[in-house]
Amino acid sequence: MGDFRRWYLSKAEQGHQLAMRYVELTGIVMPHTHDVEETIFYIEGKGSARVGEKEVKVKPGTMIVIPPGVVHSSIREGFEPLRYLAIFVGNPDL
């Protein structure tokens, strides 16, 4: 749900512990959680991210680490897409 597209760049297979995907956000990624840790590295655009009760302004070069089970979301600001890499320790339940 939300206004975004995502592509897996790699997906953890049996016995592996890392999955990565590219996300292009043109609106909002609704609040959600994962059972695994997620690290987000913003590469283009600007916006804000909410992690738990904390809101952070994001731009290229911003990195946030989201512990398992913590509610989080991202929102684009302006007209250009917000693009980021989402790196997971393990496979997220999507």
Description:
By secondary structure, the protein is an all-beta fold. It has strands spanning 2-10, 18-32, 38-44, 46-51, 54-58, 63-66, 72-77, 82-89. Strands 1, 2, 3, 4, 5, 6, 7 and 8 form an 8-stranded antiparallel beta sheet that branches. The protein starts with a strand and ends in a 5-residue tail after the last strand.
CATH class: Mainly Beta
- The run of helices and strands is EEEEEEEE
Q: Care to count the β-strands?
A: 8
**Gross CATH architecture:** Sandwich
Number of structural units classed as domains: 1
Structural class: mainly beta
What gross morphology would you assign?
A: globular
Overall pLDDT: 83
How far apart lie the N and C ends?
11 Å
- Please give the count of helices: 0
CA radius of gyration? 12 Å
Instruction: Report the sheet with the most strands, covering strand number, pairing sense and barrel closure.
Output: 8 strands, antiparallel
| Percent helix | under 10%
Residue stretches low in confidence (pLDDT < 50, at least 5 long) are none
Strand share of the residues?
over 45%
Might you state the CATH topology name?
A: Jelly Rolls
CATH superfamily: Jelly Rolls
SSE blueprint:
Layout: E1 2-10, E2 18-32, E3 38-44, E4 46-51, E5 54-58, E6 63-66, E7 72-77, E8 82-89
Antiparallel strand pairs: 1-2, 2-7, 2-8, 3-6, 3-8, 4-5, 4-7
Entry summary:
The chain has no helices and eight strands. It is an all-beta fold.
Main features:
94 residues, mainly beta, Jelly Rolls, 8-stranded antiparallel beta sheet, 8 strands
